[in-house]
Amino acid sequence: MATPNPVGNGVEPTKVDITTFLGVIWGGLAIAVIFVFIRIIARIRAFKKLYMDDALVIFALTLALVRAILWQIFAKDMFQMMAVASRRQLPGPTFIADSEGYSKASTAVIVLYYSTLWAIKISFLIFFRRLVKNVRRQELLWWPVFGFTIATYFACIGTIQYSCLVVPHEQVLANCTKDAAVNSQQFTLKLNCAWDVITDFSIMLIPISMLWGTQMRLRRKLALAGIFSLVIITIIFAIVRTTVVGSLTRMPDTSWLHMWSAIETTIAITVSCLASFRSLFSHQDSGSQPIKYNPSASRNIFHQGGNSGRSRMKFTLDSQTGTSSHKTHIQSQSMDPRNMDRDDSSTEFIIPLEGVHIKHEVGLSHEPV
């Protein structure tokens, strides 16, 4: 943010030029748009509607679009300011006004950055909320994680150095280039990265802790655990962003910082969409017939004790991941010979559990002897 002595303040030339910077911004946005579009198609195909977690992903994409537009407008001012700060260019007549405009825009960009990441986190939480509904142990875990995620969002927004962004340029030069201010920037960068990583790990633990309590083949458990662990990719990029930006110079290259921030948000949006893709490749067997509802069999899943809770968790996991073709657990117990040669399970899409309503009516008749 500064213009003084580059040696004293560690200001070095930008590591990317403006063309590369904007190319990464818009290229990442294009990738995110493609993945969100495929996610929407997958959800509509599997469930015939969208959910709140889908809306949050679309909201995050919208925030990313706004950030890209802001960079298209103000990127040149950022590169001009960095060139002057590194003494590679003399300030022009509009330098101060341009720098102040960029500083205010960068404040909005930083807020949008955290809002995009946390919208994806809340999207995952809302999605997992449907998984743990009526499963008490996981519900007790979900609420603290949700509260912690909300609290860390406001903490990240609150630690933004507004005093070095939305003030006149003279105050920036006087107060934001000192050792204390620079050290505070470095500390804040690492602290917010820690909150980012911890919240991601906490969110990931919710479905994984639920998964290992279900009755399903190990292969299927590992497949679902892999889907839920995709958040690790976002965690890796968050750590790389902070490590790369914070270790190269004493005062972070803002172009490098914001470029890695754009990459991280692209990865976060992409990862949030990957779990939906499998339903695009699940097909019902062409020769299979729809299963007829069998009340006596379904009671074993929804109304009995013992392992029925685990079965319900498995049923919910399968349906809410939109995933895959999977074997239903409602198996016919009828001794009708017509059903004896028929496979006791069928591959089909299962609608979300909250959309299932079971009604069992019994009719009695009496005839005189």
Q: Overview of this structure, please?
A:
- It is a single chain.
- With about 375 residues, this protein is mostly helical.
- It is built from 13 helices and 2 strands.
- The chain has a two-stranded antiparallel sheet.
- α3 packs antiparallel against α4 (about 95-130), α4 packs parallel to α7 (about 180-210) and α4 (about 95-130) packs parallel to α10.
- The longest helix has about 40 residues, at about 95-130.
- It is elongated, with a radius of gyration of 27 Å.
Defining key terms:
single chain; 369 residues; mainly alpha; two-stranded antiparallel ribbon; 13 helices; 2 strands; elongated; disordered N terminus; disordered C terminus
Question: How would you summarize what this structure contains?
Answer:
The chain is mainly alpha-helical and 369 residues long. Helix content is 66%, strand content 1%. A two-stranded antiparallel sheet has the order 1-2.
Mind summarizing the main beta sheet?
A: 2 strands, antiparallel
The number of helices is 13
From the alpha carbons, calculate the radius of gyration and give it in angstroms: 27 Å
Report how far apart the termini are: 98 Å
Shape: elongated
